[in-house]
Sequence to fold (170 residues):
Amino acid sequence: MPIRTGMDARTDRDLWLSEDRDDASAFGTLYDRHHEAVHLYCFRLTGSWVAAEDLLLATFVQVWRRRADLTPAEESALPILLHLATTTMSRGRRLIPTQRSAQDKGEAAMGDVLRRIAHVRGRQREILELHTFGRLSDAQIAHLLSIQESSVRWSLDRTRGPLEEPVISS
Fold:
């Protein structure tokens, strides 16, 4: 199903592949469509709203820089945006909050989740994050990472045991 909002009826893929790859308007439309979902995903990766904002901005900077090198496989650009958020995060350090804030129970809950999966590293961590936090399908993850769907399922079976779905749901 095409992702269409506002005045621009083009799909994300059409916007991404616009003839003028420097089309700031097309880029702005992609940002408007997906920044909330990417921001929530970044929060789930970091456990901090402040760090999530920084990661969101860094992700969209990467999208702008790499727009000519990447092409969404689907009409929606969300899977590739989440993948870029994950890889941008992996280049930096993982933030696991150590102090609980009485003001934001969501940060405390995400801190608990991140501590439970702290032992998961590398590709398995990325698969777990894209599936659990980004809610991407096994097929979408397999395509993004150029692996078999069975490898995605195997990795998820091995890594998501410590997670309880009600803790991470939005």
